[in-house]
Amino acid sequence: MNKARHFSLALCAVAAVLVAAACQDAASPQRTITAGITPPPKGGGSCANFRLTGGGRVDKPEPLLGKNTPDSHDFATFGFQARPTGCPSTDGSGNLEWNEHNPAAYGGGFAFHGTVTFFTTPLDETAGTTGCGRFGGFGRINPKNGSTTQLVPFQVFHACDVAEPGVGKDHIFIAIGPIGDGGPTYQRHSLLSGGNIQWHKLTGN
Amino acid sequence: MTLKILAALTLLAGAVQAQSVTGKAFGTYVNVAGIVSQSPIATLPSTGGMATGQADAFGVAGSVDASQLNAVTTGAVDNKQTGAQSTSEVEGVSAAAGAITADIVTAVATSYFGQFIGGSDATGSGFTNLAVNRVPVTDEVAPNTRVNLPGVGYAILNEQIPTGDGVTSWGMTVNMIHVVLQDVLGLTTGEIIIGSASSSVSK
C-alpha cells in the first residue's frame, strides 16, 4: 500500500516537473518581450494588518489642489483594492486600474491594469502615518500610441486615507515602470481631485 | 446570562450585516425605439471589492460613437468606515449625430461614511473639449444643465441624482451626458447616456 502510494507520489512529482518545463517553454516567447524588466522592489516595509480601497481622479502634483485645465488633458483616473496576505508575510493581493490622459505621458497616455503581489507599510515620508499603505506588483500597459507591454512592474509608494471625504486630503504616489527593457518609468504624486481612499483594519475576512 | 450574550451577538451581527455598498459604472447606454445597446458595466459586489467594464470602442449609428471606455468601481464594507467610488471615462465622444461632442467625458461618484460623517458627491467629474450644437463649451458645466438639441430632443449635462436619506444612507448617480430623444410631437422615443457612475453606502 505504502509502496503504491510512494510510486504514485513519485509519478506526480515527475509529472509536475514535466508540466512546469512545458509551461516554461510555452511562456518563454512572452518573457522575451519583457526581458530586463526590474521586479517591483518588495523589500523593506513591515507586514500590514490593514487593507486599502480607493478610486477617483488626480490632477496637479502634490501639494497643489484642484483640477488642471480641461484642454491640458493632464489628469488620471484610478481604482484599486489591495490587501496583505497577513503577517508575517509581506505578500499581497488585489488589483489596480490606472488611466492616464496626459499626452506628454508614456504612449501619449495609457491604460494600466495591475495585479497586486505585495503589500506593506510605507517606506517614504509617510512611514508611521496611520492610514497609509504601500503595495505593488505587475501589470499590462496599453498606450494610446504604441503596442501593449506585459509584466510591467508598478509600485504605489503610498496611498493615504487622511479624511472623509477624501478630495483634497487623501493622496497617492504611484510609479509604473520601467516600461519595457530599459524603458521609462511613469510617476504621479497627487492629492485626490475626485473620489476617495479608505483604510480598513483587517478583521480576518 | 447566555441569553444576554446571544442577544448581544445577534444585535452585533445585525449591525454588521446592515452595512452595504453599491457601485456601478458604464461608458454608454443607448435605447432607441426600445432597442437597447450598452457597453460593459462594472458592478460592485455587495460585500465590496472591485469590478471593471472596458471596451476599446462603442458605436450605434446616428446615436453614439466613442472609444477607450473604462469603467471602474471599488468599495469596502467596514464597521468604522465604509465607502464606494465609481469612475467612468469615455473618449472621442460623438452623441446624437454630432449634436454633442467631447474629447473625454469623466464621471466620478463617491459615497462614504465614517463614525461621525457620511456623504456622497460627484467631485472630479468633467468634460474635456465639450461642444454642444457644435459650439464649444469652455466653462465648467453646472450640475443638471439642460440644453436643447434641435431635431433631436434635449440633454441634461452633468446630471447628478442624489440618493439615500442622508442619515443612514448616502448615494450619487452621475450621468455626464443624458440625451432624451423626442419625436416632432415632443414625445420621448429613447435616450442616450454617456459617462455614468453611481455609488451608495448604508449603515
Would you mind describing this structure in some detail?
The complex is a heterodimer of chains A (205) and B (203). Chain A is an alpha+beta fold and 205 residues long. Chain A contains one helix and eight strands; from the N terminus they run αββββββββ. Chain A has an eight-stranded antiparallel beta barrel with strand order 1-2-3-4-5-6-7-8. The longest helix of chain A has 32 residues. Helix content of chain B is 8%, strand content 65%. Chain B contains one helix and 15 strands; from the N terminus they run αβββββββββββββββ. Classes of the chains: A alpha+beta (205), B mainly beta (203).
The ordered H/E elements of chain B are: HEEEEEEEEEEEEEEE
**Integer-rounded radius of gyration of chain A:** 20 Å
Physical arrangement of strands within the biggest beta sheet of chain A = 1-2-3-4-5-6-7-8
| Oligomeric state of this protein | heterodimer
Give me the count of strands of chain A. Answer: 8
Helix share, percent of chain B? under 10%
Gyration radius of chain B (Cα, Å) is 20 Å
- Give the number of helices of chain A: 1
Helix/strand-derived class of chain B?
mainly beta
